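Why do we care about 3D structure at all? Because function follows from shape, and shape follows, mostly, from sequence. That is the central idea of this module. The next example makes it concrete: a single protein chain, its amino acid sequence, and then its structure expressed as tokens.
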Amino acid sequence: MDIARSEHVEAELDGLITRRHDKRRTEEGERPAEEAWVESERRYAQQRRAANRAAWASYHRQQAERHRATLTDLVAHHLARAEMYTADTNEHHHEEDSCSSSSTRNAK
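And the structure:
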């Protein structure tokens, strides 16, 4: 049999199948199994989006708490240092102790 002829016949069959399928979908709509699958996929996607939103909300709340703890400690440190300099009645000069220099000194 001629290869070109068999390919032509195969293309005609594919076209026929596609046309019949499209006509059936137009007249009958989706089949129950396909409709159930589509609905299942829709619900799954909705649940996945809800779970992702909940995970992101949790992440941002936890991150806010971590920042709050860090910044609260930092504010307390700077207020204590300011109070030390304000309450210092002696004329002695104190070595400036910034956040970065104290960590550098401690690392030495």
